[in-house]
């Protein structure tokens, strides 16, 4: 299967990075009990904005995109600082941020899957690369802030949304669906699942709940 | 020195991954005080099963094995879920799991050393790659679960067993010993040291104990 | 822009690694409340000595220097053990260690920037690679010891010193300044800023201080 990456314009890619950086900075700026200085907030913003793409390119053994262009780092840094400075304003715009973030996860997922396929990675690991592109920034953020990784605790189906979208994209790409169309469908699916999960408070069954589910234990 | 990797059949490699995934899932399923959902347990299983090989391939700058085949990720995920579902059964089989795990460490160590040598890495770093292949999964697990890294605290000689086996393997490979034979000896040595360490409760001298060892301080 | 790396003699590079390893071991040896064994201290020493270079080479997708030579790992391990054994002696030499460490940060920064430029990384990410080379060891140390990352909390301008030096080096390299001269200036600038920061207790404005700085909020 030969797949060309789902190419998105640079400005759209940088918008996704900027949204991630704003989110990361807002997240760390809210940790009032810790003494994080300006540099720390900028670092977290950069990590959330660029971390997913970095993990993606490490996994597929390619030069990270952020290392191949002069644009990514300044954009991530600038929007991290903006996010910190305007944290009160952005708090009021929270629904907008959540919406943009859902689209951003979808974009990172679609770019990750198609880039992996384009470099010859088989279907299953390609879908994994897509999921890690989407959620890697928040994993790195939690590890650097010394927090429990949000993703692994009862949460709002972040990774599952990305997983469904990436699986769908791999199936479509293998079935010969035109890659731009497949990518757009992936972005839409991830966005909708994520927004529905936020709206209805969906979460995965918790481990303890299952452990006390008698029929399942007997199986 | 030209070394062909210590090739083991795919089913044996996947068995090692499966044992790691079961162990990782059992470990995180026991953390009752934390709210880890199904996804979190699956992630830890995948990390323990595939983490060592991933760090190995990042260090030697090659496409990770798990990214080059459709088999690794599903096997790791499936056995992580099995490990979680059957945690009570596996608890009863604990001696068997410890035995399999000791062999698994040996296999990862032998594969790591010979793969590194095969890609032109010199002897000393090749032995290091072998050790990291063996223990990398548990390091990543502890970092992701926000725990102190077990390896660095007074423990049961996990890394030392791998270190002795990897050093021996590098010496044998440099001396022209046939690589399959050298690999098997490495696996045996690691397994035996690890099992003896568990049996007799061996551990490295603790830092404070040494600090209060007067003759040593005078040296 | 074609840049040859700022080549320093192997003994000087290894000296920088040794200083890092001593510092890392001293740092972890002082954590008396934790039960860290000899292996743990050696690991932290190796991580601080080699971590920056490792992150640098991962970012620019090259085989890590420590994997390409038999010298780095033994030097880092030996000096980590020496640092642990002689922690009292080195405590008395603290000003010397701080001075050597400042030079070491400068060296890692200069090597990181020029190596990145030499492999075709553009100016902005090349400066970033230089900063990460300088501070990466201490970030990895804090993540492995499960500590808040010192760099992100109100501290002593570690990363800013490296940032100024790396930016300057990139500008000089782009302006055609001879690379050895540019590298030496970078090392000097980083060293001087770092030592002045230690001497006068400089730190970045804290997040909370800024949040309560009325004029800035109005801007």
TrEMBL record, chains A, B, C:
Annotated compartments: Cell membrane
UniProt similarity note: Belongs to the UPF0126 family.
UniProt keyword terms in alphabetical order: Cell membrane, Membrane, Transmembrane, Transmembrane helix
GO CC terms, sorted: plasma membrane
Protein's membrane topology: Multi-pass membrane protein
Name under which the protein is recorded: Glycine transporter domain-containing protein
Pfam families: Gly_transporter (PF03458)
Stretches of the chain forming a coiled coil according to its record: none
Domain Glycine transporter stretches: 10-86, 100-173
Cited PANTHER family: INNER MEMBRANE PROTEIN, UPF0126 INNER MEMBRANE PROTEIN YADS-RELATED
Organism per entry: Microterricola viridarii
InterPro entries, alphabetized: Gly_transporter
Major localization listed first in the record, in broad terms: membrane
Segments crossing the lipid bilayer: 6-26, 38-59, 71-90, 97-118, 124-140, 147-173, 179-198
Lineage summary: Bacteria, Bacillati, Actinomycetota, Actinomycetes, Micrococcales
